[in-house]
Amino acid sequence: MQRLYQKRIRNRVSMDGNMKRRRLLNRALTQFIICVVILLALATPVFYWLTEHYYAEDMIEVIGAAQSGQPLPAFDLEEYIVQGIMIQFILIIVLLGIAIVFTAHFIARRIWKPFDETLKQIEGFRLEDGKLPVLPDSNVEEFSRLNRTLHTLMANSLKSYRTQKEFTENASHELQTPLAVFQSRLDNLLQLPDLTQPMAETIQGLYQISGRLSRLNRNLLLLAKIDNRQYEKIETVDVAAVVNDLLPFLESLAQGISIRRNLDACPLKVRANRVLLESLLNNLVVNAVRHNRPNGEILLTLKGRQLKVTNTSDGEALNERLMFNRFYRPSERTPGNGLGLSIVKAICDYHGWTVSYDYKEKKHTFTLQF
Fold it and tell me: Which residues are within 8 A (CB) of 133 and not within 5 positions of it... i.e. 6 or more apart?
């Protein structure tokens, strides 16, 4: 399909090369001159009338009186001529002004129509769709060059995007297998009967590092899939039902921190990918656990079209400019790989939701607006 499209573009470019193109400035100037000539031609009767009443009539009377020896008529010929010249000058200025306005509003709009169509096509272009827009033909040289340049630029960008997408997916999948094998081998080592305490501690440390690498790989793969818009299954989901279904799992992650619910009685139905919505809630709760205090609490509040996740804390407020950046961690003592809030932001952007942060009275609050 892509090859057929590129062949079509090459054929179109070849046809464009055979077309008689004109530069934008020459085309606009030609149409402006034509407009001025037409207006002047239409105004010819007016000029004739002015000449007849301000020049010819009086001058004929003066010439006739001089030839017949009669006294000259009593009128100011100079004043009449000056008035006629000024009226004609003003009339010419008005006609030129009308021609300029007409050219700007009608002719220019017609000339720039291919450019507007090109803009509309580019505004709808998305790398995630994997399709190149069909740019309109134009017999204006500048617009034709612009379309060729934009097509080349978008084609190269799409090619680079596909290459990067394939590399990210392949790298994540390939890394997952050796990490799983590595963890399996560490499990076997931990089961050895003659394992000493230092050896067990070393293996345990390696096991934790491999687990962290595995989670990091899964999170990066999730972000790549969200960026590539691979979660296309959108359905109507009840947010309160998802929270209730996830609650047992979330409580197992809470590490002794109590989780309370305050859900609105009215169901909140949203159009979303359920897997991504569950991942969003999971990451918000995990973040609330990591930034909580011992024996603290987490409150899930659903009211109207807002879901708030609030947790107690002994720490300071997060940096609002950096907290949604990938690999952001407030300090080295904070557990995790710094991708949780990045995933939350990516999921919200994917669905068109907004997420905001607030810190008051030693409490972190993340608010989702559906």
Answer: 121, 122, 124, 125, 154
Instruction: Report the pLDDT averaged over residues 116-122.
Output: 84
CB 65 within 8 A of CB 73: yes
Q: Which residues on adjacent β-strands are paired with residue 269?
A: 238
Q: Find out whether 33 and 107 touch, Cβ atoms under 8 Å.
A: no
Average pLDDT over residues 18-22: 52
pLDDT at 15 over 60: no
Please give the pLDDT value at position 356.
92
As a whole number of Å, the end-to-end CA separation of the chain is 38
Residues 6+ apart with CB under 8 A from 55: 80, 81, 84
The chain-wide mean pLDDT, for the chain, equals 78
Q: What is the pLDDT of residues 240-268, one digit of tens each?
A: 888 888 888 888 877 778 888 888 777 88
HSE-CB for 269 with a 13 A CA cutoff: 2
Phi (first) and psi of residue 234, to 5 degrees: -110, 130
Tell me how far apart the 2 most distant CA atoms of the chain are, in Å: 146
The b/e string for 267-293 (b: 16+ C-beta within 10 A; e otherwise) is ebebebbeebbbbbbbbbbbbbbbbbe
